[in-house]
Amino acid sequence: MLQEIYNNTSEHMDKSIEALKRDFSTLRTGKVTTNIIDHIKVDYYGTPTPLNQVGNVIAMDATTISITPWEKNMLSAIEKAIQEANIGVNPNNDGDFIKLYFPAMTSEQRQEIVKQAKGMSEKAKIAIRNIRKDSNHQIKELEKAKEISEDESRRAQDEIQKITDAHVATVDSLLSNKEADILKV
User: Smaller CB count within 10 Å for the chain: N or C?
Assistant: First the structure.
């Protein structure tokens, strides 16, 4: 019973870390990746559709992304979606495809992105602490129902804290790696 709570706790905390990794992938580092535009949705005949599902998205070099729509009439919709997303660049439409030229980042921009990364990691830590709270609540309910003793309850809560500490350490490690990646010129 307690092992099940430990496993669920660890599994949910792992999901929080995966969500943090996905969030980090949308942040710009020194080299441009196509993940920067993953969250952009294009109006595809009335349906908000991810940009990578209406065209071919490739990173041409460290500062350029090219988007070639599968249907020519989607060029203006893609261009509009990119402008509305406010990702820091203006789309260049040449009639066949759209290019996004990302200028080199200034130190102020890098610091701003580091702040965003810290905010994302803090949200992940809050999610992990909420999972810990829920797990401890389940353990206290078992103790209240006399299914486990007071000592078992205390040991179980200590185990939940160890799982929590390990996941928080992982978040801190991911943040420091991402921070170094962002600040690297």
Answer: C
